[in-house]
């Protein structure tokens, strides 16, 4: 998605949650100083023309493991669940609030970390990004800058879907998405409603 097409959604998100654009932009610049890695070509190669399953972290993921096929693209804490179920994701979409030591092991084994920098995760970026030994791609929800990408999307899960679509996946199926999950807190509920809206743009009716 071109940034000009994404920007109206982004402006609405900023307004809805009271996030500051300048904080997101500072986070993106800061993340870029934490690593020299920019594995965008590896990420393209992993997705272009591929059958991809994006795994969200809803409780239903455990019942939907059998839906997983092709390239495994995990959204944040779903990666840890999959790894413990003996499935190492090929790619993880994370803003690092679901990051565990298992992510370091997965990274060492070649899992591509698509790390999202935003105004509220600067200390997480500082703690985790230098520790990733494998491929890393940095993303922003604001205007992209050199070595920092914006494929569209907001939460770790819907961003993964936008990333897969943008980088040419031939088919993107979902597992572990329950956007009506009543066990989540109000902030998370709001985020999942945005995720639903954004996935709707891509034709997913969740
Ligand atoms: N019921 C659900 N509960 C949690 N996550 C869900 C659910 N349904 C779908 N997802 C997707 O799984 C992703 C990863 O979930 P996780 O629990 O790790 O949340 P998170 O890291 O707090 O998400 P975010 O950082 O995007 O707010 C979410 O970003 C969301 O897109
Ligand atoms: N500033 C800011 N941006 C975000 C946040 C967040 O908590 N703060 N959470 C996200 C994933 O849910 C994505 N983007
Ligand atoms: Mg997260």
Name the descriptors.
206 residues, binds adenosine-5'-triphosphate, alpha/beta, 42% helix, binds 2-amino-6-hydroxymethyl-7,8-dihydro-3H-pteridin-4-one, globular, binds magnesium ion
What is the mean predicted local confidence, pLDDT?
97
- As laid out across the biggest beta sheet, the strand order is 6-5-4-3-2-1-7
Unique ligands: adenosine-5'-triphosphate, 2-amino-6-hydroxymethyl-7,8-dihydro-3H-pteridin-4-one, magnesium ion
Q: Which structural class matches the secondary elements? A: alpha/beta
Shape: globular
Q: How many strands, which pairing sense, and closed or not: the largest β-sheet?
A: 7 strands, parallel
The total count of strands amounts to: 7
Order of helices and strands: HHHEEHEHEHEEHEH
State the distance separating the first and last CA atoms: 20 Å
Considering DSSP H and I runs of 4 or more, what fraction of the residues is helical? 40-55%
Low-confidence stretches: none
- Spatial extent as radius of gyration: 15 Å
Q: Structurally, how many domains make up the residues?
A: 1
Oligomer designation: single chain
Counted by DSSP, the helix tally is: 8
How big a fraction of the residues is strand? 5-15%
Pfam family, one: MptE-like
Keywords: ATP-binding, Kinase, Magnesium, Nucleotide-binding, Transferase
Function: Catalyzes the transfer of diphosphate from ATP to 6-hydroxymethyl-7,8-dihydropterin (6-HMD), leading to 6-hydroxymethyl-7,8-dihydropterin diphosphate (6-HMDP).
GO molecular function, one term: kinase activity
């Amino acid at each position: 998605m071109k940034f000009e097409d994404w920007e109206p959604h982004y402006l609405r998100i900023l307004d809805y949650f009271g996030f500051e654009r300048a904080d997101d932009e500072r986070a993106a610049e800061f993340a870029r100083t934490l690593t020299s890695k920019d594995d965008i070509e590896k990420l393209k190669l992993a997705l272009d023309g591929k059958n991809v399953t994006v795994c969200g972290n809803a409780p239903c993921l455990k019942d939907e493991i059998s839906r997983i096929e092709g390239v495994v693209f995990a959204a944040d804490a779903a990666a840890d669940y999959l790894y413990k179920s003996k499935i190492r994701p090929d790619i993880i979409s994370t803003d690092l609030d679901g990051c565990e030591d298992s992510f370091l092991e997965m990274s060492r084994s070649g899992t591509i970390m698509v790390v999202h920098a935003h105004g509220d995760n600067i200390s997480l970026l500082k703690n985790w990004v230098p520790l990733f030994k494998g491929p890393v791609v940095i993303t922003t929800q604001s205007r992209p800058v050199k070595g920092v990408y914006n494929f569209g999307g907001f939460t770790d899960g819907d961003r993964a879907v936008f990333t897969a679509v943008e980088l040419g996946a031939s088919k993107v199926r979902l597992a572990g998405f329950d956007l009506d999950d009543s066990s989540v807190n109000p902030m998370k509920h709001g985020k999942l409603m945005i995720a639903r809206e954004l996935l709707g743009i891509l034709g997913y009716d969740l």
